[in-house]
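Retro notes (design track)

What went well: tokenization of the new backbones is finally stable.
What didn't: we kept losing track of which sequence belonged to which structure.
Fix going forward: every design gets posted as structure first, then sequence, in one message. First example under the new rule, 348 residues:
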């Protein structure tokens, strides 16, 4: 006989996702009721958070905790700006805009750093938290250092943005037309990545292997699947998604790279980690969390532009503090059983 409370339990298990989606929908409703500019800013600001969150989900679900996501965002954003600048902003090679070559370069550099991180953690069994912090600190110092050599400043030159992709007829639809069908390409990349992440985890063998690698690597090994290869693939994917997020944000929103302080990324990689923990590793929940943070980020930018007599540093803490409060109120996230643990094939 079917348990009459099973549906309630399933709903309770999904509570974090439902809360995030409800909050995100509320924020987006307010945006739609105010100004198109705020809507567009929210979509663009959500790009690095959502894509980095998807990458973090892949890595952590496989059992490798990658808190160096912020570093991957930094190196991809910086690399994309540098390559676009060298090739010539606004020009084209082989009928492809140099911004696209810059995006590709950012993804490749981020993937390379993720691969090196995987080697350190999987082959040499380094502490994953320390290795992730090292990755972030290396990126934090390397990007402004190279920028200082090239531009005599920790900040790079401007290279312009991606042009909007406009879909005829659909872009004229009320409410969503200008938002979803007349928007920069990185927004489509973000939405596509969320769909890919959901599909991989729910409909493919590889997704099940990733989950098993983080929950019970011994059982996966016994089934004949190489745990090391699965973890390598998952961490490399985290580099690909973070690269798309960092490079897409730099070329689709920032137009330049600021290397001072916490760099142009301003801790969005760490916010991405909080986002997917908040969503309990669910890709769609992570997208909702990204929208929630991005909407608040757009709000604090508008407050600064309005010139209220409130310290800028205090206003900038609004989205960060909100994420912390929501994380505390919703409750604890269940980490994968083998997260952070090294595994050697044949272990008892």
């Amino acid at each position: 006989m079917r348990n009459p409370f099973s549906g309630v339990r399933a709903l309770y298990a999904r509570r974090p996702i439902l809360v995030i989606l409800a909050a995100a929908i509320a924020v987006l409703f307010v945006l739609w009721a105010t100004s198109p500019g705020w809507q567009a800013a929210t979509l663009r600001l959500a790009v690095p958070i959502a894509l980095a969150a998807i990458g973090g989900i892949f890595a952590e679900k496989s059992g490798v905790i990658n808190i160096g996501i912020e570093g991957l965002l930094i190196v991809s954003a910086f690399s994309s700006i540098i390559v676009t600048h060298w090739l010539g902003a606004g020009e084209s090679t082989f009928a492809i805009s140099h911004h696209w070559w810059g995006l590709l370069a950012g993804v490749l550099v981020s993937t390379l750093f993720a691969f090196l991180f995987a080697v350190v953690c999987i082959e040499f069994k380094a502490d994953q938290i320390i290795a992730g912090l090292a990755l972030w600190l290396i990126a934090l110092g390397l990007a402004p250092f190279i920028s200082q050599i090239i531009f005599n400043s920790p900040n790079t030159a401007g290279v312009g943005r991606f042009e909007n992709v406009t879909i005829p007829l659909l872009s004229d639809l009320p409410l969503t037309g200008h938002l979803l069908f007349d928007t920069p390409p990185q927004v489509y990349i973000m939405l596509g990545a969320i769909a890919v992440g959901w599909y991989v985890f729910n409909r493919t063998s590889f997704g099940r292997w990733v989950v098993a690698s983080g929950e019970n690597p011994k059982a996966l090994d016994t089934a004949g699947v190489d745990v090391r290869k699965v973890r390598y693939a998952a961490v490399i994917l985290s580099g690909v998604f973070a690269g798309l997020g960092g490079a897409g944000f730099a070329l689709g929103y920032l137009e330049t790279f600021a290397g001072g302080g916490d760099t142009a990324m301003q801790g969005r990689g760490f916010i991405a980690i909080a986002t997917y923990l908040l969503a309990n590793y669910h890709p769609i929940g992570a997208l909702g969390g990204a929208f929630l943070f991005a909407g608040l980020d757009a709000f604090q930018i508008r407050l600064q532009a309005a010139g209220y007599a409130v310290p800028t540093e205090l206003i900038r803490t609004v989205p960060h503090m909100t994420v912390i409060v929501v994380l505390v109120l919703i409750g604890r996230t269940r980490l994968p059983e083998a997260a952070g643990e090294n595994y050697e094939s044949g272990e008892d």
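Added context from the reviewer: Residues 4-13 have pLDDT under 50 and may be disordered.
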